[in-house]
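Chapter review: from sequence to fold.
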Amino acid sequence: MKKLLKLILRLFIGFFVASMGIVFMLNSNLGAGPWDVFHQGLSNNTFLTIGQASIVAGFVVVALTTVLKLKVGIGTVLNMIFIGIFTDIILFTNLIPISKNLFTGLIMLFIGMMLMSIGTYLYISCELGCGPRDGLMVALTSITKKPVNVIRRSTELGALICGYILGGKIGVGTFIIALGLGGCMKFVFEFCNFDLGVLNHKSLKDTIPFIKELLKEDNDMENIRM
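The token string follows.
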């Protein structure tokens, strides 16, 4: 049970840290990140909150990554739901203040990008399935053999264009995030000696056998101690 609980805890800490990163970037008041510009645009044209728009967009991206033969795991589904929920909770509780000037805005932007990168590392490394947008990044990285920062920037550019068409807010921070988040992600992955190419994500079908295996390992360890 300990291994399973640690894995679940790591997964949800990753979701929460990534959500904190999203809100830091939003509240930098310098313009949202590319995907969040898209979520804002979608929210502006529907009855959805930004978090709910993120969830809906996640389902669409998952459908695309499924076509690209990427495994969809329980982590993918939980990511779609809980990052949107955590983002709305953090926004509605005013946990993170809104920047009033350029200097604090830039600091918040950098903190947000680093938190987003760390959160992404935490939940992707659980190998329970990538988040929707990360799944697209992993699938395209695997297919094209291009560096992760190049793929990240390309997908974010597409989201940015769609978001702008829908009326999402673009500022200087948008372009800083578009150009800088891929680099932050690359730095965090390399610092943690983390290679996307060697991951073995569990599909939804593999999840129950994987959980049973973790529980069996815990029981075996307990028996050895006894």
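Two observations follow directly from the output. The chain has a mean pLDDT of 85. The chain has one domain: 2-225.
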